[in-house]
Amino acid sequence: MSWISSVAVRKTILASLAAAFLAASAGSAKAEPPLVGDMVKFVPSAGDRTAPDTPFISATGDAIKLDSYRGKTVLLNFWATWCAPCVKELPALDRLNAELGSELGDDRFEVLLVSIDRGGAHVFEPFLEKLGIKSLASAADQKTALLRAFKAPGLPTSFLIAADGTIKGRLVGDAEWDSAAAKDLINYYASE
């Protein structure tokens, strides 16, 4: 074998090894789920923006911050009793919380409702009970400080927050949150 043909063979072997390596490493990266159905409205965040540290009121009446949810993926949903699209999506959010909470574990995922109703829990708690919402409780943001800190453009708006506290994206408007597409999207970010 001549020197020129042995160089060509080596180049071919190296090119094949490089192609195999690139194919293997591309296959190991987890592909983002397709955004279909209502999830086409989901807009991934650009960069790693941490969720605001603005306090709000828990379902038990205590002041809390989103830091207390670190370690779990949170779907933060801003809503109000007077908002028709908000009310429309509440049953789907309730089912999502029950189903994914069971699958991933309550310590790894939670839907966090935050009502901006001025009357606070006195208004939204009986409303949720009347709707038959069983697996969700709502927190309160009566002065809309948290809503403004998130720069939410309207109601309903949902933010997907990773376990490390970074905002992964938002969806403005109502959605079928208990759909397979929504679960795939949440599972993708919960497994990062």
Short description:
By secondary structure, this protein is an alpha/beta fold. The chain has helices spanning 3-28, 84-104, 121-131, 145-149, 180-190; strands at 42-44, 56-57, 63-64, 73-79, 109-115, 138-140, 157-161, 167-172.
Report on this structure.
The protein is globular. By secondary structure, it is an alpha/beta fold. The strands form two sheets. The protein has a six-stranded mixed β-sheet with strand order 1-8-7-4-5-6. Helices cover 39% and strands 18% of the residues. It has two domains: 1-30; 34-190, Glutaredoxin.
Helix content: 25-40%
CATH architecture of the largest domain: 3-Layer(aba) Sandwich
**Overall average residue pLDDT:** 87
CATH level 1 name of the largest domain: Alpha Beta
User: Which sheet architecture does the biggest sheet show?
Assistant: 6 strands, mixed
Strand order in space, largest sheet: 1-8-7-4-5-6
Annotate the secondary structure layout.
Layout: H1 3-28, E1 42-44, E2 56-57, E3 63-64, E4 73-79, H2 84-104, E5 109-115, H3 121-131, E6 138-140, H4 145-149, E7 157-161, E8 167-172, H5 180-190
Parallel strand pairs: 4-5, 5-6
Antiparallel strand pairs: 1-8, 2-3, 4-7, 7-8
